[in-house]
Design brief:
Structural class: alpha/beta
CATH superfamily of one domain: NAD(P)-binding Rossmann-like Domain
Largest sheet: 7 strands, parallel
Low-confidence stretches: none
CATH architecture of one domain: 3-Layer(aba) Sandwich
Shape: globular
CATH topology of one domain: Rossmann fold
Order of helices and strands: EHEEHEHHHEHEEHEEHEEHEHHH
Number of strands: 12
Length: 348
Amino acid sequence: MVGNRVDSLLVTGGAGFIGSAFVRHALANGARVVVLDAFTYAGHRANIEECLEGESCQVVEGNICNFELVKKLFDEFQFDGVAHFAAESHVDNSIQGPGAFVETNMKGTFTLLEVARNYWHSLAESKKGDFRFLHVSTDEVFGELGETGKFSETTPYQPRSPYSATKAASDHLVRAWHHTYGLPTIVTNCSNNYGPRQYPEKMIPRMIRCALQGEPLPVYGKGENIRDWIHVEDHCRGIWLALTQGKPGETYCFGGRSERKNIDIVKLICKMLDQMKPRKDGRSYEEQISFVTDRLGHDWRYAIDDAWAEKSLGFSRQYERFEKGLEETVKWYLDHPEWAETVLGGKQ
């Protein structure tokens, strides 16, 4: 399949969990990358240290809402594409303080789109067709599912939290800039990601860390909520395919085809830790599970049908078995105990 060549790439939020995994993937595919990251609590240089050893990756600390800074980067590096990951992304935080989500997810995306639009219009006609603006979104914009069915590229939007509402708004902006101005944009939606370097507020790394520290493992409600899980490496391969093979104006969904109840994942993590790092008292980590008051407006079930990405992009998953990916993830956190302390300590 002949694709669109991306030599110079702006990656916003490239020091975060998914963004840093994508940076490594883009570099491995020969791209020169500029990471723009505000280095708030979830973005850390520790995630991309090895990417900075060569000359193909540069890091700029700054906010995507800063029009002049973003414009300066476009003028200096003459980007062939944008991979837009930067976002506030934790539902609990959005419930407590939605303002930051409106600022980053909506205003920040608007700023990027405007700079990209002006830059794109300035390109020679031969260059315009090669430029891409890829916006990374979430399955949470679709709302929730019942016992059956899956989200797809044609599912109507029904966001149910401040986080998902602001991501939905940014998705709509990206599509509007394509249909109104012709900017070659692409939107991707994904299911829950997991893997190394995920910020410890998220469920899987949080459970691992709490277990090892002898703390309660807080599970919302009865833990019956269901999520579809995709390994971050599989997700990033999908994003790269969408960026280089995708059609402007299209949407592509990426899922793991690995639906699991939250409580089942927590118990599985406990069993893995029982084998890899047994408690000194010989008891199972499952004894630390503690059920807590459910999250406000907690969506019941998510799942993605990514048949369109498979057919049109040739997308496939390396991690067909969630259990294999989770086992590798647990082992990574055990092998890198300093990582969580570094990011939680705010060291850059």
